[in-house]
Write a structure and sequence with these properties.
464 residues; Serine Threonine Protein Phosphatase 5, Tetratricopeptide repeat; 5-stranded mixed β-sheet; 4-stranded antiparallel β-sheet; 13 strands
């Protein structure tokens, strides 16, 4: 018997070591990809995201948006557009009555398997990621020279944002199945730790930048009623943005740009959202029992001050959407279900051990003990989320610029980034900048698909 126990324990120790290595690998690969993007090594990040999209059993949907974002940062807008399109199609049904969100489990109420953990549940895009997949999908289509497709997705975005508010609001009002006073207390305590991060948003599904972007596209296409509605909603969600407020204030007035003038929109992405980590929390009612839940690290964040110089309307950009706050909101909203599932799994383990101990069979007791030990080691918090998203996005806009070629200077905390932008009479052009830390990437294109081709930051022409 002692020899049997010793061999079993050695086997358990080996399994624990293997499990520990496996748990670290997934997050470490994501960290390596983000570090590669920061230093400009796009191939590493693209390979990682493509593998996640094409070969993952549970995280394909997450891989699609990661692949879309890495391809976009690498300047491959056609491939990025295709990835975002696949991600949207995985979450949206297009019926006769318009696009509808597919019925799926976003993780707020349903219980998962009590044998494994949340990482073995299929990943569905949470509301804020679905909104951002639409936003960046629209931008990728514009830069890929497909403004018609971008306009189609703008219409989808309008319908889905309204539906998200109705669907998610109703879902949050429900109590998670199996919730107890203990699970409520744990969820409330950890949600309180997110207080600072979530302060910048009201919930996880409102994306004012997407509302405003759809307004820009509708206005450029002459659909003024649609544009005014989008502008008003952007201003309602983020009333502190002066560009949103100005567009909402002129709703119902003259469209811009006027004949012979041009309109320039600048979108600035800052950094990356923080990565989720695993946090172990003891459960008081079960001696020696703990659960693993995701958390965000406590880290200071301040938005860069971004100035646009070299045009008649030069000035400071304004915060459009705090994406790290949306991500924290999403985690807060999912915490009750996450805690309930994990406590339920622990109860199953504890119950199995109590039952087998009562049988008096030492071999069975040891087998269940080792099984619980290995399952506990394998179990970790589900830290999956869209990690290549920026931490925040700012916007700047000038409604009526004289046509011509502008050598702009985008000043970020004292560092100036040059951007050459051609403006044709009557066109609306978007200049997108992504500051990933060590370098700034970017492109510009007219939203109508007419005029000058896509330009990089130096003014060198790229293939449309």
């Amino acid at each position: 018997m002692p020899a049997t126990n010793s061999a079993a324990l050695r086997l358990a120790a080996a399994a624990l070591a293997a499990a520990a290595c496996g748990c670290v690998t997934v997050d470490e690969e994501a960290r390596n990809a983000i570090a590669a993007l920061s230093r400009g090594d796009d191939a590493v990040a693209v390979a990682w995201s493509d593998d996640l999209a094409d070969n993952s059993r549970y995280s394909r949907n997450l891989g699609l948006v990661e692949a879309g974002r890495t391809r976009m940062l690498a300047g491959d807008f056609g491939a990025a557009s295709a990835r975002f399109r696949a991600a949207i199609d995985s979450a949206v049904d297009r019926g006769e009555n318009g696009p509808r969100i597919k019925l799926s489990d976003w993780g707020n109420t349903a219980l998962a398997s009590t044998v494994t953990d949340d990482r073995t549940r299929e990943y569905y895009l949470p509301p804020y990621e679905l909104n951002l997949a639409l936003e960046y999908g629209i931008l990728a289509q514009i830069f890929a020279g497909a403004p018609g497709e971008a306009l189609v997705d703008a219409r989808i975005a309008v319908n889905l944002q309204d539906e998200l508010a109705e669907t998610c609001g109703a879902d949050l009002a429900k109590e998670p199945d199996g919730a107890s006073d203990t699970t409520r207390a744990i969820a409330a305590k950890e949600a309180d730790n997110l207080r600072e991060m979530i302060a910048a948003t009201r919930n996880s599904w409102e994306n004012p930048a997407l509302w405003w972007l759809t307004g820009v596209l509708f206005e450029a296409n002459g659909e003024l009623d649609m544009a005014w509605q989008s502008y008003r909603k952007a201003d309602a969600v983020n009333p502190g943005n002066r560009f949103f407020a100005a567009d909402a204030a002129r709703a119902g007035g003259l469209a811009t740009p006027r004949a012979g003038k041009s309109k320039l929109v600048v979108l600035y992405d800052q950094g990356f959202v923080p990565m989720r980590e695993s946090l172990e929390i003891p459960v008081p009612i079960y001696t020696g029992f703990a659960i693993q839940i995701p958390k965000y690290p406590a880290e200071a964040f301040s938005e860069n001050r971004v100035f646009v110089a070299g045009s008649a309307g030069a000035g400071e950009a304004a915060p459009a959407v705090n994406i790290r706050s949306l991500a924290a909101r999403d985690l807060k909203e999912q915490l009750p279900g996450i805690v309930t599932r994990n406590v339920t799994r622990g109860m199953v383990q504890a119950g199995a051990q109590v039952a087998v101990n009562a049988c008096g069979n030492e071999y069975a007791r040891l087998a269940v003990f080792l099984g619980n030990l290995i399952v506990s080691a394998l179990r970790s918090a589900d830290t999956r989320s869209w990690r290549t998203l920026p931490a925040s996005q700012q916007v700047w806009c000038e409604l009526e610029m004289e046509p011509g070629t502008y050598d702009l200077g985008i000043s970020v905390n004292g560092r100036s980034v040059p951007a050459r932008v051609p403006l044709a009479p009557g066109e609306t052009r978007i200049l997108w900048l992504a500051d990933t830390g060590l370098l700034v990437r970017g492109a510009s294109a007219t939203v109508s698909g007419r005029g000058a081709p896509v330009m990089d930051l130096s003014g060198k022409e790229e293939k449309q």
